[in-house]
Design brief:
By secondary structure, this protein is mainly alpha-helical. It is built from eight helices and four strands. Helix 1 crosses helix 4 and helix 5 (113-122) packs parallel to helix 7 (145-157).
């Protein structure tokens, strides 16, 4: 059932936001020369996939967790995209393809060994990763792997159609309030 919602909402989102996506591609091209950022992430059953985002950092920035990257590597346009979470709009394509869901644990990088270990212990890789979820709503980042994995498990265990919508609406509300 959730997969059907993911397909529906990602399709509508890609169509509705297509003018903004095109505008951001052009501005991103002027900003960095390469507006799209592809990054290998760990998905369901530990299968890797290529996550699509708008580039927010200078070319050549090391592929590590955002919390570990020096903030001076973020471009001016990248700062704007991050502030409103607009850099994540292209992930609607990942949702449409089935690599991700709109709601689920954020997919981690293959080099985040501690987080992978914590998530393996809790069975988090048995579900499709998502754009948003309980950890994002609570402001928990990948810098605290054990806490993040525990929060992911809490969300996964209580996931239903109502919580799916709750996390989407809470994410949107927090973005508009400037708290995400």
């Amino acid at each position: 059932m959730i997969r059907l919602f993911d397909i529906f909402f990602s399709s509508i989102g890609l169509i509705f936001f297509s003018p903004i996506l095109i505008l951001f591609l052009v501005v991103g091209w002027l900003d960095t020369g390469s507006p799209i950022f592809l990054q290998k992430r760990v998905g369901i059953k530990l299968r890797s996939f290529m996550l699509v985002k708008f580039r927010t950092m200078k070319m050549g920035t090391k592929s590590i967790g955002t919390h570990l990257v020096d903030k001076k590597n973020v471009t001016y346009f990248g700062f704007f995209l991050r502030k409103f979470k607009l850099d994540e709009l292209p992930q609607l394509w990942n949702v449409f393809k089935g690599d991700m869901s709109i709601v689920g644990p954020r997919p981690c990088l293959p080099n985040q060994k501690k987080l992978i270990s914590e998530r393996k212990k809790r069975g988090i890789f048995n579900v499709t990763p998502g754009i948003t979820g309980l950890a994002q709503v609570k402001g928990i980042t990948m810098s605290t792997p054990s806490m993040l994995a525990s929060t992911d498990l809490k969300m996964v265990n209580k996931m239903n159609i109502f919580s799916y919508y709750y996390y989407i609406f809470m994410t949107i509300a927090l973005i508009f309030k400037g708290k995400m």
